[in-house]
Amino acid sequence: MNVASKIKRGRKFDQVLAGARVIFLRDGFEGASVDDIAREAGVSKATLYSYFPDKRLLFMEVAKAECRRQAESAAEFDDEGASPRKVLTIAGRRIGDLAMSDMGRGVFRICLAEADRFPEIGREFYESGPLLVRNRLCDYLQRAMDRGQLEIEDVPLAAEQFSELCKADIQVRRLFKQDETCSAQKRNKIVKSAVDMFLARYATEETKIADAAETA
Amino acid sequence: MNVASKIKRGRKFDQVLAGARVIFLRDGFEGASVDDIAREAGVSKATLYSYFPDKRLLFMEVAKAECRRQAESAAEFDDEGASPRKVLTIAGRRIGDLAMSDMGRGVFRICLAEADRFPEIGREFYESGPLLVRNRLCDYLQRAMDRGQLEIEDVPLAAEQFSELCKADIQVRRLFKQDETCSAQKRNKIVKSAVDMFLARYATEETKIADAAETA
DNA sequence: CCTCAAGTGAACTCCGCGGTTTAACTTCCT
DNA sequence: AGGAAGTTAAACCGCGGAGTTCACTTGAGG
Description:
Tetracycline Repressor, domain 2; 2 domains
């Protein structure tokens, strides 16, 4: 039993949460009505309120769960043996996927919109989203440095740079509903370009030589 | 006279717009009440409605004006004679400033929140914001290529990459209210690192040599 | 000084939403 | 069978915000 949570569990708990997730992600916090959520969840309003004391708490619960879900998808990449190019390409593709996904967009949008009203939402999202990815990346970069593959003065900054590079040209367009689709081909090109740039700056001489041989 | 606009002009037009700007930027679209706006503008609600047919139109007008304002601040950089490092450093600082400003954050936040309900808002913001900056940057990069300073296969992508690099580590934290302040020193470091990385990848050999001499 | 258009403010309508209550119905345990 | 706990649909309350109306003021121009 979840002692920390003040929220009652029960048969229809997950059902309510699932419905709330759909509606909140579609309409945002203000835009979503509790009636809509109850209908979507296939549950009466009274039942909904028997589980969650109010709308705000329900929203927080949904947001937290969603952040956790996404954190999982940014899984670790521990390909110790592989070349930096290979490891970074895989990681970059994951980052790009997250930026393109409907879920990623929805959560980003709502968390940002509500970050002023509910600061803890902003923190929660940041920490279990971008920060988590960055930390994983930092760990890898540090290991690659220890192995003499990379040469970086400011590892956290480098991690952030790589992450941003992978989202170049797609994140903003996606967020603002321009150019809905983005071909896999284009995404590959962006990630490749990001890796090229990152290695041009941070790879040691040996790594560059090995990379040139590998790529050719 | 603005024929295209269906909105009546008049003595208090700008006054209303100014008030709306303050309140919308503070409270968002849903959060802002028309009464608040009228009060802030020092105008009666009736007058407000005599200028703008409804709240949505008023908001659109504010958002459009604000995007234009910001676009201006990302002014052109035609330092033809200067080295790529100098030009890019100045441009990068401007981009960073915009990402850090309250205005920049506010407009971004609200436009994103309303992009689903009012797609034209999303388009307007994207085109007069990020896209405009990118195009300016593209123009410069092309000229630098013509001069043999840079060597780029995909100019628009490179522009986007540089832009993203300049916002690394600050944009997201700023948006989600983490780490409110960011020292000028740190910002300089980020921009310098962005320029370093960009040149490492896209500068021609001669430029790299000249840059090394210049930096030393 | 009179006119008339623009502006005022306060009251008012309408509506949707958050949240509550109630009375009937289902489930399930003993 | 019986009863406690959970669920439901529907009506209901109160509030706050969008938009309207109207009697009244202001001030520039003939």
